Amino acid sequence: MATLRAHIDALDKKLIGLLAERHALIDRAAQIKSNIGWPARIDTRVEQVVANARRHAATAGLDADLIEDIWRQLIEAAIAQEDRHLNGDRE
């Protein structure tokens, strides 16, 4: 069990690293959107990302509904992150 837990912990660390990479990409997206005058929320893109996540989940044998819930939370956090950049970090 200790070995399995260590493997899970190592995988969690990799997932956090991937989320940090995604966070940096969202910062870049916010810069681009600011330059071209796009809003943080683009509903068609939100649904495209969710559909991609559901498809990848199904292919991997995961619960697509659960993955959709997780991805929608990620997307909302990303939109809030972009909003902070687009609004000059004003609340």
UniProtKB/TrEMBL annotation:
Keyword Isomerase: yes
GO terms of biological process kind: chorismate metabolic process; salicylic acid biosynthetic process
Keyword Isomerase: yes
Cross-referenced InterPro entries: Chorismate_II_sf, Chorismate_mutase-related, CM_dom_sf, CM_II_prokaryot
Keywords associated with the record: Isomerase
An example molecular function term from Gene Ontology annotations: chorismate mutase activity
Domain Chorismate mutase as annotated: residue spans: 1-86
EC number: 5.4.99.5
Name of this chain's protein: chorismate mutase
Organism of origin: Paracoccus amoyensis
